[in-house]
């Protein structure tokens, strides 16, 4: 097996020169020293992706690298934070499969570059394939999006489309392997809504990313805010190709309770809707109204709302490390 140092320097060091911004001391010492922008708050979150729990063993290595970072970045997006740095803890069955490692690193670094995120440290160990990614972003104290600000009368809105993660997983289990398929791409190559999160900061009253399913994550937001919601079932934006792949009933179920969508669910006052849509149009992203916040607790408007959220790939519940 290669030494840990070899692995870190070969595959885990920052690829792009601008990635050094804010890094006072990079990989190679006991710690990395970072210099956050004065006056900004540091938003920090960690997620671990385990083979056959969060992604299938046969997924392309490049997609596994992309996805491990994307799911962590999604939490920064949900806070309205601007992504700056990340750390990776990589557990590998063997360090000898350099082709796999190169593909994995390419997927990871490409998303780092696309989001302005610098990989500033890592750790490798031997074991069942698992990738832990800690992300750090910056957010202005006045603009951070939290889960507790939803107020009765606010609109409930989601970015993009729903059900694609669950639809892609279903297709994968049926043997579909073409990542050009829009649903499979939604499942294996999710796009963290960082630009949308920053755009909605100051307009939305509360936000959460939809990683466990719309209903499950809506419940988290409602509980934090001490409010309820009335959903409009007919307004759920379904992912492209979802009805064709799953049929109408399963498509609606995937949109409500499927996981791994990584869209943002926000509450916002009606008077902010036009401005929010204008800002999101810059990233070519739709903002769909799916209901509104009510004073009385609970979720009404959808019979299926009583059902629980998504259980991950193996069927095992995942409470996650991220708050
Ligand atoms: Mg989250």
The count of strands amounts to 12
Structural class: alpha+beta
Tell me the radius of gyration. 19 Å
Identify the bound ligands.
magnesium ion
Q: Provide the CATH architecture of the largest domain.
A: Alpha-Beta Complex
Compute the number of structural domains: 2
The CATH topology of the largest domain comes to Phosphoribosyl-aminoimidazole Synthetase, Chain A, domain 2
Strand content: 15-25%
Parts with pLDDT < 50 across at least 5 consecutive residues: 304-323
Could you characterize the architecture of this molecule?
There is one protein chain. The protein is α+β, with helices and mostly antiparallel strands and about 325 residues long. About 30% of the residues lie in helices and about 25% in strands. The protein contains ten helices and twelve strands. The strands form three sheets. It has a six-stranded mixed β-sheet with strand order 8-10-7-11-9-12, with helices on both faces. Strand 4, helix 3 (about 100-115) and strand 5 form a beta-alpha-beta unit. Magnesium ion binds near residues 75, 78, 209, 211 and 322.
Task: Jot down its keywords.
single chain, 323 residues, Phosphoribosyl-aminoimidazole Synthetase, Chain A, domain 2, 2 domains, six-stranded mixed β-sheet, four-stranded mixed β-sheet, disordered C terminus, binds magnesium ion
Task: Give the gist of this structure.
The chain is built from 10 helices and 12 strands. The chain is of the alpha+beta class.
SSE diagram, text form:
Elements: H1 4-11, E1 23-25, E2 33-34, E3 41-50, H2 61-78, E4 82-92, H3 98-115, E5 118-126, E6 130-139, E7 155-159, H4 164-173, H5 182-188, H6 194-200, E8 206-209, H7 214-225, E9 228-231, H8 242-246, H9 248-257, E10 264-268, H10 273-281, E11 287-294, E12 298-300
Parallel strand pairs: 4-5, 9-12
Antiparallel strand pairs: 1-2, 3-6, 4-6, 7-10, 7-11, 8-10, 9-11
Magnesium ion (MG) binds near residues 75, 78, 211 and 322.
């Amino acid at each position: 097996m290669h030494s840990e140092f070899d692995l870190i320097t070969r595959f885990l060091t920052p690829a792009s020169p601008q990635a050094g911004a804010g890094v006072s001391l990079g990989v190679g010492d006991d710690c990395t020293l970072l210099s956050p922008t004065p006056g900004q708050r540091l938003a920090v979150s960690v997620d671990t992706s385990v083979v056959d729990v969060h992604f299938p063993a046969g997924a392309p290595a490049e997609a596994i690298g992309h996805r491990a970072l994307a799911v962590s970045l999604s939490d920064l997006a949900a806070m309205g934070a601007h992504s700056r740095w990340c750390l990776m803890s990589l557990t590998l069955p063997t360090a000898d499969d350099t082709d796999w490692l190169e593909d994995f690193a390419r997927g990871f670094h490409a998303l780092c570059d696309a989001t302005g995120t610098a990989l500033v440290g890592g750790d490798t160990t031997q074991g069942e394939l698992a990738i832990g990614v800690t992300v750090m972003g910056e957010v202005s104290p006045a603009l951070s999006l939290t889960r507790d600000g939803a107020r009765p009368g606010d609109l409930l809105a989601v970015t993009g489309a729903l059900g694609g993660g669950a639809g892609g997983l279903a297709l994968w289990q049926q043997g579909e392997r073409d990542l050009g398929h829009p649903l499979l791409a939604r499942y294996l190559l999710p796009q963290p809504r960082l630009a949308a999160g920053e755009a909605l900061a100051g307009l939305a009253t509360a936000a959460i990313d939809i990683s466990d399913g719309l209903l499950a994550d809506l419940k988290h937001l409602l509980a934090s805010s001490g409010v309820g919601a009335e959903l409009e079932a007919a307004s759920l934006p379904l992912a492209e190709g979802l009805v064709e792949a799953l049929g109408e009933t399963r498509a609606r179920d995937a949109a409500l309770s499927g996981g791994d969508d990584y869209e943002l669910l926000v509450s916002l006052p009606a008077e902010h809707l036009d401005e929010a849509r204008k800002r999101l149009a810059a990233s070519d992203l739709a903002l769909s109204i799916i209901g509104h916040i009510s004073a009385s607790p609970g979720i009404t408007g959808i019979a299926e709302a009583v059902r629980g959220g998504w259980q991950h790939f193996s069927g095992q519940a995942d409470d996650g490390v991220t708050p």
